[in-house]
Amino acid sequence: MPEQDPTAAPSPAAVPGPVGALREIGFWLERARAQSHRVKAYRRAADIVAALPEDERAAHRAARSWREIGGIGPKTAAVIEQAYSGVVPEYLTELRAAAEPIGAVGKPLRARLRGDLHTHSNWSDGGSPIEEMMGVAAALGHEYCALTDHSPRLTVANGLSADRLRRQLDVVAELNERMAPLRILTGIEVDILDDGTLDQQSDLLAELDIVVASVHSHLRADSDVMTKRMVYAVANPNVDVLGHCTGRLVEGQRGTRPESSFDAEVVFEACKRYGTAVEINSRPERRDPPARLLRLAVEMGCLFAVDTDAHAPGQLDWQGYGCERAVMNGVVAERVINTWPVEQLLAWTRSTDR
């Protein structure tokens, strides 16, 4: 998908090939929060076609025998055949027409965002390779995008050990050479452990461009315990962003979950004092922090990061949700760290006096 107005839905190439068409359908379905099994059908078919040798593709195209391949059903086969015939597949045309801009109220802020500081790939619990995630980020107009897969304690999310994270850094370095001018920022979403320490080696955290620290366990601890835990984490000089601070879920397939209990004034004062941005998490099922806490963080002079927490390419366009909530609650662009040029952002994250 080519670069475009970041406040609008993507406007991809008019007639993509079959692999591009299947992946773009996956993008629009993810963006629209469709059931995951629907998305996976199109992404799986795209991977299957992409992996076929050219002679096998030619043979199936001539025989119109796509449905003989495991993993390709009647709907995905129709997309492939229509794309090969030189027209935009009917289903893709429908999805493009149905897409609407996300978060109209937040459009001015979205236009000023230069990147996303919280995303996941299939190295942890995301659904797509790093290169595909970052290619979509570039197409959405990002100048930079942080890759922040989970840390090792979150085994359910296939969190990265120190060795796996180091291997990922090598992959990111190679991709940065190929994907310029997009800058892929090295990062992690590191678990805040019960005592407030972080779930990764401190020397390795210090090497990363962006560290998002989040609570994922024992979310029902009492307020004093949770407050101390969070303050200790945001005071850590390696932490740049406090992720989805209340841990709540307000809708979605995982059900709902109440907010964690903590002294928000104390936590936000620590964020301000130690130079840790408060994340405005754009995921529709999180909407974290809640409006009252977001307004409190504004009043207390905190910095912010409007992030998608994307686990799939189509979710990278969810920043509009977070921008809308930010604008509605008084957040100004100058206090959103991902409106800053990458040089300013990295100077800030690396500073020992912020």
Sequence of secondary-structure elements: HHHHHHEHEHEHEHEHEHEHH
Return the structural class: alpha/beta
Individual helix count: 14
Distance linking N and C termini: 37 Å
Radius of gyration: 21 Å
Strand content: 5-15%
Coarse morphology? elongated
Largest sheet: 7 strands, parallel
Going by CATH, the homologous superfamily of the largest domain would be: Metal-dependent hydrolases
Total separate domains: 2
The CATH C-level name of the largest domain is Alpha Beta
CATH domain topology of the largest domain:
TIM Barrel
Number of strands: 7
Fold blueprint:
Blueprint: H1 18-31, H2 36-51, H3 54-63, H4 74-84, H5 90-98, H6 107-112, E1 115-116, H7 130-139, E2 144-147, H8 162-179, E3 183-191, H9 202-207, E4 210-214, H10 223-234, E5 241-242, H11 264-274, E6 277-281, H12 291-299, E7 304-307, H13 319-328, H14 342-350
Parallel strand pairs: 1-2, 2-3, 3-4, 4-5, 5-6, 6-7
Helix pairs in contact: 1-2, 1-4, 1-5, 10-11
